Task: inverse folding
């Protein structure tokens, strides 16, 4: 069972685990470091991604420690006991076995064996990450053994079970542990290569080329928005540490929740679902408006604004960003105004980008619009499965009920009542 009980309300407003402004400041500082790398001629490589992830994480940690101490758990750690090296060994066994199993599936599955932009960037990165985790985990487990209030955690109990061939964890605990690592193994292998490519774009983009072309202006602005998004989307999967209060508490336990999330990402979306079930992008706004016209620039601004707001939603999550997991509440930044800002602004932007309603015939316009609505429906299901999962945490229930009254979309929810948050009943438990 998770540490929190099933959605009892807490008194007072919900408290965020992090601060949007701290996360934004950390990103700006790290961007400055990258700008120096551009000036110094450092262009490409896994090392730059590692440098980026380390700097943005340390920046968040330091700023939270100074300006946001109430939720900085690592500031409250204290020495409680001597190190139990047997317990540390058991935890290390669990970690090494876990990484070994993940490595086996990376080796086994053809999607990680083919020469693609993902394997070209991700597999060299693993050559740094795996040895580092294998070595650094020993002092980390030793430190946590001294200061953690509950050192007999799931790592220890799984390791005990592995070494003594016995059942030491509940079915839920084991399942949650496996799902948490599946989230990291799947999404890190996507986000890390994307971020490496975006860092390369930032370090090599030609500003002279951009200045002379409205279309290049759009692609540069579009790329920068997703660069912001990936800064934390890639780092969040790496920084999953209890000492920083960024650990995964629970991972989505339902198959449906996993399906509607995973299908939105490569290879499932690009190879299967989009081309065969949701191919709505036959028009495109650049085909509708003359390049450089007044309407073209208006549409340009609207699309980039929506993409920028989507990126700011990721910044609000900071180093706690992750799909399908609960790593603490954030109700800062855009989350002060709606529960699912990333989904909302992303889906609206697709309508402006694709403009399916501007197809050459009404039949085609209707068809493409319905296909895009189907895509929107996937994100509605993602939002609802997330709400159901997070409703096991009282702080989230408090926050979600607040949004029923304070959200900028509360008027829409009063008309479309299925959008309004409702606390699950006891017979809807998923844990």
Result:
């Amino acid at each position: 069972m998770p540490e929190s009980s099933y959605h009892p309300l807490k008194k007072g407003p919900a408290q965020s685990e992090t601060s949007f402004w701290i996360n934004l400041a950390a990103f700006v500082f790290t961007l400055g470091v990258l700008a120096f790398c551009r000036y110094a001629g450092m262009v490409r490589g896994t090392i730059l991604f590692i440098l980026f992830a380390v700097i943005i994480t340390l920046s968040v940690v330091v700023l939270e420690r100074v300006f946001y101490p109430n939720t900085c758990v690592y500031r409250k750690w204290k020495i409680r006991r001597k190190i139990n090296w047997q317990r540390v060994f058991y935890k290390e066994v669990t970690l090494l076995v876990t990484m070994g199993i993940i490595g086996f599936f990376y080796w086994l599955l053809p999607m990680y064996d083919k020469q693609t932009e993902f394997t070209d960037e991700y597999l060299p990165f693993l050559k740094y990450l795996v040895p580092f985790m294998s070595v650094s985990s020993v002092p980390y487990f030793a430190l946590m053994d001294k200061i953690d209030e509950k050192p007999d955690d799931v790592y220890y109990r799984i390791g005990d079970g592995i070494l003594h061939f016995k059942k030491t964890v509940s079915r839920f605990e084991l399942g949650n542990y496996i799902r948490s690592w599946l989230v990291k193994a799947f999404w890190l292998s996507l986000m890390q290569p994307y971020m490496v490519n975006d860092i390369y774009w930032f370090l090599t983009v030609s500003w002279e080329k951009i200045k002379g072309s409205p279309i290049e202006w759009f692609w540069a602005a579009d790329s920068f928005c997703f660069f912001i998004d990936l800064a934390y989307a890639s780092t969040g999967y790496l920084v999953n540490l209890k000492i920083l209060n960024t650990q995964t508490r629970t991972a989505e336990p339902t198959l449906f929740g996993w399906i509607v999330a995973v299908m939105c990402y490569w290879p499932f979306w690009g190879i299967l679902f989009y081309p065969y079930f949701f191919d709505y992008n036959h028009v495109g706004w650049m085909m509708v408006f003359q390049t450089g016209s007044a309407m073209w620039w208006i549409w340009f601004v609207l699309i980039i604004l929506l993409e920028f707001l989507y990126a700011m939603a990721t910044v609000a999550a900071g180093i706690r960003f992750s799909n399908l997991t609960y790593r603490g509440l954030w109700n800062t930044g855009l989350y002060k105004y709606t529960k699912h800002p990333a989904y909302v602004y992303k889906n609206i932007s697709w309508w402006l980008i694709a403009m399916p309603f501007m197809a050459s015939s009404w039949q085609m316009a209707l068809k493409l619009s319905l296909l895009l609505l189907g895509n929107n429906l996937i994100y509605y299901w993602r939002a609802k499965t997330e709400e159901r999962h997070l409703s096991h945490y009282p702080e989230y229930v408090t926050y979600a009920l607040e949004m029923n009254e304070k959200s900028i979309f509360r008027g829409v929810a009063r008309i479309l009542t299925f959008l309004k948050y409702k606390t699950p009943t006891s017979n809807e438990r998923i844990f």
Summary: The two ends are 6 Å apart (CA to CA). The beta strands are 250-251, 325-326. DSSP finds 16 helices and two strands in the chain.
